[in-house]
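Dear support,

Our group has been running a series of protein-ligand predictions, and this particular one with NAP is the one our PI (initials K.S.) wants archived with full inputs and outputs. We had some confusion internally about which version of the output was final, so please treat the block below as the authoritative record. The input we submitted was:
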Amino acid sequence: MNNNKTALITGATSGIGFVVAEHLVSKGYNVIILGRSRQKLDTLSQHLTSINSNVKLDKVLCDLSSLDSIKKACESIKETYTSIDIMVLNAGLWNFQFIETVDKIEETLQVNLLAPIVMFNELKVIIPKNQESKVIFTSSGLHQGIINFSDIEFRQKFSGFKAYRQSKLGLLMLTQWLSKQSINTGISFYSVHPGMVNTQLGRSAGWLSRTIFKLFGKSKEKGAQTHIHLIDSNCSDLESGSYYANSKVTKTTSYSYDMKTAEILWNTLEEYVRNN
Ligand SMILES: NC(=O)c1ccc[n+]([C@@H]2O[C@H](COP(=O)([O-])OP(=O)(O)OC[C@H]3O[C@@H](n4cnc5c(N)ncnc54)[C@H](OP(=O)(O)O)[C@@H]3O)[C@@H](O)[C@H]2O)c1
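Confirmed final output from the archive:
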């Protein structure tokens, strides 16, 4: 293998992640692309090779709605790689009805929040502790509200909006929490709001929401700019633990800074893993 740095990305088969993956290969990173469709991974890999044929691309099948699939994917990555310099944990969905995964967990909670945390946890042993490694989570400006600990899967009364918002709030809280836990480990953590972007995210929404995204959403190229800023900047010029929008550190709700709640959330997610 060449001596290039290695990046891992989820959710690159469409939307914002697609542009971020293009950027990573254009910058000379070897890229591990994770996706749930073999065909989409093949098409993406061919496209990325056409941008830069001098990087190594690895396609790893991984369905984030299955803890078993995540664990198998991470095992195979650890067998092949000794280091991952940048992780872009970007995949996400927005459901408009209650869907349970194979693990019997509400899908938004599992794919948007549990999956990226499990993936980081499984792979952290191969993240170099060198002050340059970055873990980037795709959060959202829709992060208001609270973590609904009494019914974190919204089983009693499902709201796709609340489930989505909670998953993104959880991600930005755990970004801060991980950063505080990891002081002096040499790994930096960032969460990102890409803005309102015209992508496939609202695919299961009604026609009205889809039309709003189409009419008012920015292009995926513009939506990827904050991720690109974080990838291209030195960690010393960034603020680990912070939430970035428009390529700047941005304030979030006062609730989101409560690290006791973040710790309870971390423990809750750990319990899901233990029970599966
Ligand atoms: N668009 C916006 O306005 C907006 C705003 C704020 C935050 N975000 C966040 O940005 C991120 C990227 O979304 P996007 O807007 O680019 O939407 P998108 O075009 O729908 O892309 C979502 C990506 O996630 C992948 N994914 C979904 N479920 C998966 C699963 N079970 N296993 C593996 N991969 C899965 C999709 O794979 P497939 O191709 O296989 O479906 C796709 O690559 C998401 O986290 C989203 O919440 C978006």
